[in-house]
Amino acid sequence: MPVVGDRVFFVSSESHQRKVTMGKGGQQANKNGHLDLNEPIPQLWNNDEDAIDDFLGDEDPAHTDPEDEDYVPNRRSKPSKKRVRRHTPQQIQELMAAYEQCTHPDPEAMQALGTMIGLAPKLVKFWFQNRRSQVKKKDQQEQNQQFQQANASLKAENRSLRKAILTQTCVTCCGKTLPFNPLLEKQQLLTKNARLKDEFLRAFAIHSKIIRDSAFTQPAPWISSSSSSEADREALLRHAETSMEQFLVLATKGEPMWLPAADGGEMLNHVEYRAKFSPALFRLRPEGFAVEATRDTAMVWGSAAELVVIFMDMARWSETFPGVVASVVAGDVVSTGSFADGQIQLMNAEMWVQSPRVPNRTVNILRYSKLVAERQWAVMDVSVDGIFGQEVLPAYLPARYMGCRLLPSGCLLEDMSNGYCKVTWIVHAEYDETTMPTVFKPLFLNGKALGACRWLTSLQRQREYATALHSSLYPGNNTAAEAAGMLKLAQQMMASFYATVSGPIAQSQATSSINDWFGSIGTGVERFDVAVRMVTWEKAGSSVAGEPASWFLSATTTLWLPGTPPERVFDYLRNEQRRGEWDFVHTDGAVVEEMSSVSMGYLAGNVTSILSSNKTDGTNDRTLILQEARTDASGSLVVYTPIGEEAMDAAMGGGDGASDFPTPSGFAILPDGRRKACHAPSPAPSTSSSAPVLRNDTAGSLVTMAYQVLLPGPLPDTAAGAFDDVGKLMCHVMEKIKNAVEAEIVLPA
After folding, report:
1. pLDDT tens digits for range 8-26
2. pLDDT tens per residue, range 475-512
3. Are 636 and 524 in contact (CB under 8 A)?
4. Helix ranges restricted to H, 503-611
5. Domains (range + CATH), the chain
6. Which of 184, 267, 385, 545 sits CB 3.0–4.6 Å from 680 for a disulfide?
7. Where is the sequence biased in composition, kind Acidic residues (predicted)?
């Protein structure tokens, strides 16, 4: 029976009559149900459910949401009547005191509290629910009020700033300001940025040159008889052996260690790798570094032992990978064992990608070659930064920030019976992704920039070049000497093009300068700004007494063509019938005819050729075009240079045509890496690896154009005009390419 204060209520469900027994001093109802008007009239109920509802009073609106933890369903469909207070002040006081101690009491506590104050546990529970809802509602109201005040303050500040912009007044002192010219301000900032960039590149080049010049003037630490040098040597030997063991596991294991990639090759399963190898073996990955781990296999002409000899000779190794290796400095030989037992050597290598937007990658590595089985060799590279317990390096290695480190990488060579060897190449690198332009991040993550595919295709091409150089079978009327002369001249042209695109030309010379020129491509809503890097430099040895110096201008820029496959761009650029659409400088819109060519490789389009147009200049010496076109899974190149017919004849006749060899121009076409692929489970994701996402899964292109020209006069008289002429020419050429390949979108990279 419910109890409230000193009143007791009896409920009879059989007779449906209500009998109320009042407390001390009260009266009893008569037979007609009338009560004494001098006493307060209590509410009567027909059943227990109504009694509970009357004790609760009006339902709190906050309890209408079923998701609320304090929600109490309304079991009455009819509108509730106005209720009077059902709790005494003493009960409310006790309930408030209990709420301050605990807002969510357990059933036992509510049972004890109800017994103490004369309320049922269910009513105590409902009171706590209502109380929590009231407190929550009050907090929300206060928070909303604070938000409204902050919003009003921001609106007032916004109005003040907009008024200041319109009236050109200072917000602080309310005084008038000078008129703002955004174009002039932008131009000043760009000029200052170009000057600072030029100063940085000069300082960096001088610093690198000093370190490289002193590489072999300091005593080698391993020759010293001190105990510390011997300890360092032992540390390097242990590091080499441990790395070789891991490399052989990675080179010989299949799935699930390696998973197939959709566009060829394999990608490392990082989950399986972490389960197999301890992450502390080569130190934890630095913060902000991304991981690229790829493997690829191909057949390469030559024996395994021959390739090992090339890889252990730093000069020949650099010549074998001209599009990948920018420079190399050989260090000490750590181990001088026999050729079969293995050799270990330290080196510093710098690698590049054909775009002026991508920074070069520098690594200090330990190279270990070893005969691991009959007719099977391994050449392994691994970084040595920090293996001595401190972040120090030997004196002959550049002591500068390294944005990349190699985990066990390299190649496994196996001799075959047909004069070829099977090469399995692995690249497992960690690099600072924060230094990478956003548009190039997918290209590096999938290994197309400096992964296994890039190294392996470069090796295949160089071996095919060596085969063609000594071959006696050539198409057309070319003799072996003529073909060899053409290939050697093309090799010089490609080396010059790599230096032009992948780094500032002659940046160590005091006479060189680097500037940025800004133009635009397209019209209307499709118009966008293009930044062209302008490098002016004086040709080495061109200053002769009484003669003006020869100054050259190299201009480079990179554009992104989303959804346009690289093959489409490559096919258009090497189309002889359509060359006049974009190369009107050398062809004047005329048709180009192939006079001679040497094909290399099994892929269509890998050819070195001599082109001639119908353009005439009124002289007997025609201007020919030497061109090399290359394409593979990692990218494509179309590089060309004008050369006089007499100089070409001299080069093909076995002479040296390099004295008349001008600087080359051309295009480097890289995939953007955004085609959908079956990527392996990734390690910890990097927040900076995100890039613009396209709706389709078609591969796009990153097209870099380089154009070089001899300036007509000395600097700085001709620089400004030449910048404008060359910049507009490049914008016009890129717009022609955009329209020809039907690229829907073109963006600056």
Report:
1. 333 333 433 333 333 333 4
2. 544 677 788 888 888 988 999 899 888 865 444 455 67
3. no
4. 566-573, 584-587
5. 3-137 (1.10.10.60), 214-469 (3.30.530.20), 481-748 (3.30.530.20)
6. 267
7. 47-59
